[in-house]
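User: Can you recover a sequence for this backbone? Please restate the input before giving your answer.

Assistant: Of course. Working from this structure:
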Protein backbone atom coordinates (compact mmCIF):
# COMPACT_ATOMS: atom_id res chain seq x y z
CA UNK A 1 0.00 0.00 0.00
CA UNK A 2 3.01 2.25 0.46
CA UNK A 3 3.81 1.87 -3.24
CA UNK A 4 0.22 2.49 -4.39
CA UNK A 5 -0.09 5.65 -2.33
CA UNK A 6 3.33 6.82 -3.52
CA UNK A 7 1.89 6.85 -7.07
CA UNK A 8 3.53 3.62 -8.17
CA UNK A 9 1.39 1.31 -10.34
CA UNK A 10 0.22 -1.06 -7.60
CA UNK A 11 -3.60 -0.88 -7.56
CA UNK A 12 -5.31 -1.07 -4.19
CA UNK A 13 -8.35 -2.44 -6.05
CA UNK A 14 -6.42 -5.69 -6.49
CA UNK A 15 -4.26 -5.81 -3.36
CA UNK A 16 -6.94 -5.09 -0.77
CA UNK A 17 -9.65 -7.48 -1.99
CA UNK A 18 -6.98 -10.18 -1.91
CA UNK A 19 -6.36 -9.24 1.72
CA UNK A 20 -10.13 -9.52 2.23
CA UNK A 21 -10.06 -13.00 0.76
CA UNK A 22 -7.32 -13.90 3.25
CA UNK A 23 -9.59 -12.53 5.99
CA UNK A 24 -12.31 -14.88 4.75
CA UNK A 25 -9.84 -17.79 4.76
CA UNK A 26 -8.88 -16.95 8.37
CA UNK A 27 -5.25 -16.21 7.50
CA UNK A 28 -5.46 -12.61 8.74
CA UNK A 29 -7.91 -10.57 10.81
CA UNK A 30 -10.09 -7.82 9.32
CA UNK A 31 -9.26 -4.81 11.52
CA UNK A 32 -5.51 -5.41 11.70
CA UNK A 33 -5.51 -5.75 7.89
CA UNK A 34 -7.33 -2.41 7.55
CA UNK A 35 -4.98 -0.70 10.01
CA UNK A 36 -1.82 -2.05 8.36
CA UNK A 37 -3.08 -1.17 4.86
CA UNK A 38 -4.05 2.32 6.02
CA UNK A 39 -0.71 2.93 7.72
CA UNK A 40 1.10 1.83 4.56
CA UNK A 41 -1.07 4.15 2.49
CA UNK A 42 -0.36 7.03 4.85
CA UNK A 43 3.38 6.46 4.52
CA UNK A 44 3.15 6.43 0.73
CA UNK A 45 0.96 9.50 0.49
CA UNK A 46 3.22 11.34 2.94
CA UNK A 47 6.13 10.71 0.59
CA UNK A 48 4.19 12.29 -2.28
CA UNK A 49 3.13 15.19 -0.06
CA UNK A 50 6.76 15.78 0.89
CA UNK A 51 7.83 15.74 -2.75
CA UNK A 52 5.20 18.35 -3.58
CA UNK A 53 6.00 20.41 -0.49
CA UNK A 54 9.78 20.46 -0.79
CA UNK A 55 10.45 20.00 -4.50
CA UNK A 56 7.42 21.67 -6.10
CA UNK A 57 5.49 21.31 -9.31
CA UNK A 58 8.43 21.51 -11.70
CA UNK A 59 10.27 18.61 -10.07
CA UNK A 60 7.10 16.52 -10.13
CA UNK A 61 6.60 17.23 -13.82
CA UNK A 62 10.25 16.58 -14.60
CA UNK A 63 10.58 13.27 -12.77
CA UNK A 64 6.95 12.12 -12.67
CA UNK A 65 7.28 10.37 -16.02
CA UNK A 66 9.47 7.75 -14.32
CA UNK A 67 6.42 6.58 -12.41
CA UNK A 68 4.02 7.27 -15.30
CA UNK A 69 2.73 10.49 -13.77
CA UNK A 70 1.84 12.91 -16.54
CA UNK A 71 1.08 16.61 -16.42
CA UNK A 72 -2.56 15.71 -17.09
CA UNK A 73 -2.65 13.54 -13.96
CA UNK A 74 -1.15 16.30 -11.85
CA UNK A 75 -3.57 18.85 -13.32
CA UNK A 76 -6.53 16.63 -12.38
CA UNK A 77 -5.32 16.57 -8.79
CA UNK A 78 -4.71 20.33 -8.82
CA UNK A 79 -8.20 20.94 -10.22
CA UNK A 80 -9.72 18.91 -7.41
CA UNK A 81 -7.60 20.70 -4.83
CA UNK A 82 -8.50 24.13 -6.20
CA UNK A 83 -12.20 23.28 -6.43
CA UNK A 84 -12.67 21.64 -3.03
CA UNK A 85 -9.77 22.96 -0.95
CA UNK A 86 -8.44 20.88 1.90
CA UNK A 87 -11.43 18.47 1.91
CA UNK A 88 -10.32 17.45 -1.61
CA UNK A 89 -7.72 15.28 0.10
CA UNK A 90 -10.54 13.31 1.73
CA UNK A 91 -12.88 13.27 -1.28
CA UNK A 92 -10.15 12.27 -3.73
CA UNK A 93 -9.47 9.06 -1.80
CA UNK A 94 -12.57 7.60 -3.46
CA UNK A 95 -11.71 8.58 -7.04
CA UNK A 96 -9.33 6.36 -9.04
CA UNK A 97 -6.07 8.04 -10.07
CA UNK A 98 -6.94 11.29 -8.28
CA UNK A 99 -6.66 9.28 -5.05
CA UNK A 100 -2.92 8.89 -5.49
CA UNK A 101 -1.98 12.23 -7.06
CA UNK A 102 -3.89 14.52 -4.67
CA UNK A 103 -0.93 14.54 -2.28
CA UNK A 104 1.23 16.43 -4.78
CA UNK A 105 -1.03 19.52 -5.06
CA UNK A 106 -1.61 19.43 -1.31
CA UNK A 107 2.15 19.56 -0.78
CA UNK A 108 2.70 22.16 -3.50
CA UNK A 109 0.09 24.42 -1.89
CA UNK A 110 1.84 24.04 1.49
CA UNK A 111 -1.24 22.56 3.16
CA UNK A 112 -0.71 21.90 6.86
CA UNK A 113 0.76 18.40 7.17
CA UNK A 114 -1.48 17.69 10.18
CA UNK A 115 -4.63 18.52 8.20
CA UNK A 116 -3.31 16.55 5.25
CA UNK A 117 -2.75 13.48 7.42
CA UNK A 118 -6.15 13.82 9.11
CA UNK A 119 -8.11 14.12 5.84
CA UNK A 120 -6.00 11.39 4.25
CA UNK A 121 -6.36 9.03 7.19
CA UNK A 122 -10.15 9.23 7.15
CA UNK A 123 -10.45 8.65 3.41
CA UNK A 124 -7.77 5.98 3.28
CA UNK A 125 -9.20 4.08 6.24
CA UNK A 126 -12.71 4.01 4.75
CA UNK A 127 -11.44 3.05 1.26
CA UNK A 128 -9.22 0.28 2.62
CA UNK A 129 -11.98 -1.10 4.86
CA UNK A 130 -14.45 -1.17 1.95
CA UNK A 131 -12.07 -2.99 -0.40
CA UNK A 132 -11.00 -5.51 2.22
CA UNK A 133 -14.64 -6.13 3.11
CA UNK A 134 -15.53 -6.65 -0.57
CA UNK A 135 -12.73 -9.20 -0.83
CA UNK A 136 -14.08 -10.99 2.22
CA UNK A 137 -17.60 -11.03 0.76
CA UNK A 138 -16.23 -12.29 -2.56
CA UNK A 139 -14.51 -15.10 -0.65
CA UNK A 140 -17.78 -16.02 1.06
CA UNK A 141 -19.51 -16.13 -2.33
CA UNK A 142 -16.68 -17.62 -4.36
CA UNK A 143 -18.69 -20.62 -5.56
CA UNK A 144 -21.48 -18.42 -6.93
CA UNK A 145 -18.91 -16.09 -8.54
CA UNK A 146 -16.99 -18.98 -10.10
CA UNK A 147 -20.17 -20.58 -11.48
CA UNK A 148 -21.31 -17.24 -12.95
CA UNK A 149 -17.93 -16.65 -14.54
CA UNK A 150 -17.82 -20.18 -15.95
CA UNK A 151 -21.22 -19.62 -17.60
CA UNK A 152 -20.06 -16.31 -19.04
CA UNK A 153 -16.79 -17.80 -20.25
CA UNK A 154 -18.64 -20.48 -22.23
CA UNK A 155 -20.39 -17.72 -24.19
CA UNK A 156 -17.13 -15.83 -24.63
CA UNK A 157 -15.35 -18.97 -25.79
CA UNK A 158 -18.06 -19.74 -28.36
CA UNK A 159 -18.03 -16.14 -29.62
CA UNK A 160 -14.22 -16.14 -29.83
CA UNK A 161 -14.22 -19.42 -31.75
CA UNK A 162 -16.82 -18.04 -34.16
CA UNK A 163 -14.83 -14.84 -34.72
CA UNK A 164 -11.66 -16.87 -35.25
CA UNK A 165 -13.39 -19.08 -37.85
CA UNK A 166 -14.74 -16.05 -39.73
CA UNK A 167 -11.31 -14.39 -39.62
CA UNK A 168 -9.62 -17.56 -40.96
CA UNK A 169 -12.21 -17.83 -43.73
CA UNK A 170 -11.72 -14.18 -44.77
CA UNK A 171 -7.94 -14.55 -44.58
CA UNK A 172 -7.95 -17.71 -46.75
CA UNK A 173 -10.27 -16.08 -49.32
CA UNK A 174 -7.97 -13.06 -49.49
CA UNK A 175 -4.90 -15.28 -49.91
CA UNK A 176 -6.56 -17.19 -52.79
CA UNK A 177 -7.42 -13.93 -54.58
CA UNK A 178 -3.83 -12.73 -54.28
CA UNK A 179 -2.47 -15.99 -55.76
Amino acid sequence: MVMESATLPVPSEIVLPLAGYWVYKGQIEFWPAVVVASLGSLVGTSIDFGIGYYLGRQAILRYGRWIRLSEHHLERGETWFTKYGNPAVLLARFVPLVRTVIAFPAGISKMSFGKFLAFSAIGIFVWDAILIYLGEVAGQNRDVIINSLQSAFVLVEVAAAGILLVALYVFSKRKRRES
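That completes the design. The chain is about 80% helix and 0% strand.
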